[in-house]
Design a protein that fits this description.
Length: 117
């Protein structure tokens, strides 16, 4: 195999592996819609019935919730849950999925905050 052919082969393998890594990144919005929207609403604003059922639930962005928390803080909430109202997702989501959801929660919080400004 010539040096040129070897270089082409290495480049091709690198492109394929990079594409595969990108394709495997969790989609925070999809996971949120599957696991979280039933309580938090599709856009991070809980329905009135959920606000009655869960007294402490807030819209993302309300009082800085979601927009001011770090991704690590949101992941910690996902991992441990909050009181009896929000269950832990440690048995349902892997760390990369939690981080993707946390990033999406921050995005929703920023959108909510921007609408209120």
């Amino acid at each position: 195999m010539t040096t040129r052919n070897l270089l082409v082969a290495v480049t091709l393998v690198s492109v394929v592996l990079a594409g595969r890594a990108t394709a495997q990144q969790p989609n925070g919005q999809s996971i949120f819609r599957e696991e979280c929207k039933q309580c938090h609403g599709i856009n991070g604003v809980p329905a009135a019935r959920d606000r009655v059922k869960y007294k402490k639930i807030k819209a993302f962005g309300q009082d800085g919730f979601g927009s001011t928390l770090s991704v690590d803080s949101i992941v910690k909430i996902l991992r441990k849950g909050i009181d009896k109202d929000m269950k832990s997702f440690a048995d349902k989501l892997e760390e990369p999925e939690m981080r993707a959801v946390a990033a999406y929660v921050k995005e929703l919080g920023e959108k909510f905050k921007a609408k209120k400004a």
